[in-house]
Amino acid sequence: MRQLDHVHLPVSKLDRSIAFYRDLVGFGVGHTDENMAVLEVGILLDLAPEGQKIPAGVVVGIEVDQVDAFYRELTARGVEPKDTPEDRPWGVRSFYVADPDGHQLEFERPL
Q1: Fold exhibited by the domain 7-49+57-110
Q2: Which partner for 52 in 27, 29, 48, 60 could form a disulfide, CB atoms 3.0-4.6 Å apart?
Q3: Residue 46: how many other CB atoms lie within 10 Å
Q4: pLDDT in tens, 4-14
């Protein structure tokens, strides 16, 4: 094995999730269809079948160049992070954001 290629995140409303990741977080969106959208960072948003429970506990770590600057960008766009940037015991500076379906994004940079 060489590296992680992509992560599938089930979502309850594809249009809402695309808008969140594109307009608020700033990720580019590649291929889309009625059931899926591919984000430039290797996240695939998959429309969950109606009635399917979205799993809790998913955390996706995404490295950014400047944690504090990215935090300010997101809050200026209307994103409400779960916490503020801080240095973590595991050697990164990071903060967390929840997407509309509750998936956690940890925006981080190694210390």
Answers
A1: 2,3-Dihydroxybiphenyl 1,2-Dioxygenase; domain 1 (3.10.180)
A2: 48
A3: 14
A4: 788 999 999 99
Backbone angles phi, psi at 3, to 5 degrees: -165, 165
C-alpha–C-alpha distance, residues 107 and 92, integer Å: 10
- pLDDT tens digits for 30-68? 999 999 999 999 999 999 998 888 888 889 999 999 999
- Residue positions annotated with a catalytic role: 106
The CA distances from residue 33 to 10, 43, 83, 85, in Å, are 14, 15, 33, 35
* Torsion (CA) 18, 24, 30, 33 in degrees, nearest 10: 10
Helices (runs of H) and strands (runs of E) counted in the chain: 2, 8
Ordered alpha helix ranges (H), 1-111? 14-19, 67-76
Nearest in space to 13 (alpha carbons), one of 56, 44, 47: 47
Return the amino acid letter for 90: W
In the chain, domain spans: 7-49+57-110
